[in-house]
């Protein structure tokens, strides 16, 4: 790419950035939490159609993907509103390498809405940031991918290889949206996942399991005035929790032998994400449910990890007289994710490095993460090198989540140059 072409593309990104922010704000206004994504995906389908993409818009059928490697069990949820959208741009003549740009539109609940400075689904720009649920994680990233291509068009070009713009659901809970794209037949020479971990290439991500523990108590009058004390299901859950939490320290100790994670300070987290139970204050709770997010070192066998979880629960139950007779039930639902490492030296990393150097004036760095993304599907199950590189997000999954706008503009510039480098360019 000559310097004149490069500058035309960068200028086009800058000229379109105000429109990009308006588009991102429109995305944030959709409260696209799990089970409520359909309206947002219709918006995405309409927007991609208007921009000249050939659009595939379909409802995910669990039956189509349940036997695929990488499928995450969905024990307790309905997929009636689970739609994917893929927009395809095809050149007149293929000269470059094809690319998947994969981003998710599902967001986590806003926690306590009363504690947000402004409502979570009313985007606010202040102090060089856009605030709102999903502004960082990761609607701004998906919008940046779209507007990087719009900048190429404004500069008089389009990618010289097929580009598949994937707007998916279920990233925050299973990854089954990205898996459904694979089942649908979408494959490319490389993939970009514009998650907001900063302008650095994610070298590795952990695996992840969601587990549900159900406890049945013995409901009685809480006063024990009728001589029956019962067994408090919530108290039994509290008894179980320290046993499960100890897995975190034990599994982090294994990192010493891991080629990538040995220097990470704390890659594995075991999080008690939900605890529920009871229906009357003066009654001993009859039921309790614990839901856990359990990190897994890359390379670990998920079947063996599941067995370790089951064994630890059995140990907890054996240590309590009531639970020894009435053991808790373990169910795996949601994430069942393998870890993923992008091995150094790939062509796609080199292309991103060239684009990053042109924008930032310094070599791109790499990081390793204790989080999980949809990049694993392409890297592990399609042998497609998959990059995670994005803007800077603050307080993801927290109150007053935001994206740094300067980082977003710079990263969009990098995306435009990267697409031009990877896919090649043809004149419009």
Structure description:
With 428 residues, this protein is an alpha+beta fold. It folds into two domains: 292 residues, Aminopeptidase (3-Layer(aba) Sandwich), CATH 3.40.630; 130 residues, Alpha-Beta Plaits. 36% of the residues lie in helices and 22% in strands. It has twelve helices and 19 strands. The chain has a six-stranded mixed beta sheet with strand order 1-2-7-3-8-16, with helices on both faces. Strands 4-5-18-17 form a four-stranded antiparallel beta sheet. A four-stranded antiparallel beta sheet has the order 11-12-10-13, covered by helices on one side. A hairpin with a 7-residue loop joins strand 17 and strand 18. Helix 1 packs across helix 12, helix 5 packs across helix 12 and helix 10 crosses helix 12. The protein is elongated and about 85 Å long. The two termini are 16 Å apart.
Structure keywords:
single chain; 428 residues; alpha+beta; Aminopeptidase; Alpha-Beta Plaits; 2 domains; six-stranded mixed sheet; four-stranded antiparallel sheet; 19 strands
Domain count: the total is: 2
Number of helices, counting only DSSP H or I runs of 4 residues or more:
12
Helix content: 25-40%
Count all strands and give the number.
19
Instruction: Write down the overall mean pLDDT.
Output: 97
CATH level 1 name of the largest domain: Alpha Beta
In the sheet with the most strands, the strands line up as 1-2-7-3-8-16
Q: What is the SS-derived class? A: alpha+beta
At the fold tier of CATH, the topology name of the largest domain is: Aminopeptidase
Q: What is the correct CATH architecture of the largest domain?
A: 3-Layer(aba) Sandwich
């Amino acid at each position: 790419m000559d310097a004149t072409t490069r500058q035309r593309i960068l200028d086009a990104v800058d000229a379109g950035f105000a429109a990009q922010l308006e588009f991102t704000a429109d995305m944030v206004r959709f409260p696209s939490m799990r089970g409520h994504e359909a309206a947002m995906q219709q918006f995405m389908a309409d927007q991609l159609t208007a921009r000249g993409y050939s659009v595939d818009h379909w409802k995910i059928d669990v039956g189509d993907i349940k036997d695929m490697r990488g499928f995450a069990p969905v024990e307790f949820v309905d997929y009636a509103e689970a739609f994917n959208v893929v927009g395809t741009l095809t050149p007149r003549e293929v000269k470059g390498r094809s690319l998947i740009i994969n981003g998710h539109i599902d967001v986590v609940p806003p926690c306590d809405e009363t504690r947000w400075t402004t409502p979570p689904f009313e985007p606010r720009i202040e102090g060089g940031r856009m605030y709102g649920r999903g502004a960082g994680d990761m609607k701004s990233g998906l919008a940046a991918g779209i507007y990087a291509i719009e900048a190429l068009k404004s500069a008089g070009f389009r990618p010289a290889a097929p580009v598949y713009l994937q707007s998916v659901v279920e990233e925050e809970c299973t990854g089954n949206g990205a898996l459904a794209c694979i089942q649908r037949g979408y494959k490319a020479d490389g993939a970009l996942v514009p998650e907001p971990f900063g302008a650095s290439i994610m070298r590795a991500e952990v695996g992840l399991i969601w587990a549900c523990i159900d406890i049945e108590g013995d409901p009685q009058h809480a006063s024990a005035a009728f001589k029956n004390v019962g067994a408090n299901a919530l108290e039994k859950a509290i008894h179980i929790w320290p046993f499960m939490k100890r897995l975190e320290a034990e599994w982090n100790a294994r990192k010493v032998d891991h080629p990538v994670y040995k220097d990470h300070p704390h890659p594995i987290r075991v999080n008690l994400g939900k605890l529920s139970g009871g229906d009357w204050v003066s009654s001993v709770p009859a039921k309790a449910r614990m839901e856990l997010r359990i990190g897994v070192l890359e390379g670990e066998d998920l079947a063996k990890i599941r067995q370790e979880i089951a064994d630890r629960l059995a140990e907890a139950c054996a240590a309590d007289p009531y639970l020894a007779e009435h053991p808790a039930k373990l169910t795996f639902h949601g994430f069942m994710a393998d870890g993923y490492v992008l091995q150094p030296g790939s062509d796609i990393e080199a292309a991103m490095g060239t684009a990053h150097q042109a924008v930032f004036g310094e070599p791109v760095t790499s990081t390793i993460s204790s989080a999980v993304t949809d990049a694993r599907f392409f890297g592990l199950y399609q042998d497609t090198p998959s990059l995670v590189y994005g803007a800077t997000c603050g307080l993801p999954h927290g109150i007053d989540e935001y994206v740094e706008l300067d980082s977003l503009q710079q990263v969009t510039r990098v995306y435009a140059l990267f697409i031009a480098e990877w896919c090649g360019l043809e004149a419009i």
